[in-house]
Amino acid sequence: MGIMIVDEKDKEEIFRVINSAFLIFDDVDLGYVLDFSLDEMNIAVVTSERFKPHEGMKFAMKLASFIKKNLKHKCNLSNFNVNVRVLHLSPVSFQYDAIRKGKLVFCRNPARRVMYEADVITKTLLQNTLITSKVHDYNT
């Protein structure tokens, strides 16, 4: 019958499958699971390659297809949908939510993680400061 996602053991098995996929794709530096349900998973990745939007979308689709195929074979999840998003092609607010709310399931280089997350937090704070400043200027 396959894995039904009901407990932490099942989730950890699925995360192991995802982790092994990330190891095969050399461009993946960090992988976060953002959303998890009985039939769908949303994943965000940080890549070493700075893809252009079209290339990034192709890479995300290729990675999603690979993960879905492995989940089908190793966990017997045949109707499971996997969505992958390349973070550097996403708005800063989405990147911030990914690192804040997502579960880090893969980290090829801890120093890269610290640099990336610090950069996103800095950009988010700067963006919020600019928005607050503009609202303040508008109100005065």
Distance between the termini: 64 Å
Question: Could you list the spans in which at least 5 consecutive residues all have pLDDT below 50?
Answer: none
Looking at the overall shape, the CATH architecture is 2-Layer Sandwich
Radius of gyration: 17 Å
Structural shape? globular
Number of domains: 1
Mean pLDDT score: 87
For the record, what CATH class applies?
Alpha Beta
CATH homologous superfamily designation: Beta Polymerase, domain 2
Return the CATH topology: Beta Polymerase, domain 2
* Assembly status: single chain
SSE sequence, one letter per element: HEEHEHEH
Total number of β-strand segments?
4
Strand content: 15-25%
Number of helical segments with 4 or more residues: 4
Report the biggest beta sheet as strand number plus sense, adding barrel if it closes.
4 strands, mixed
Summarize the structure.
By secondary structure, the chain is an alpha+beta fold. It contains 4 helices and 4 strands. It has a single domain, classed as Beta Polymerase, domain 2, CATH 3.30.460.10.
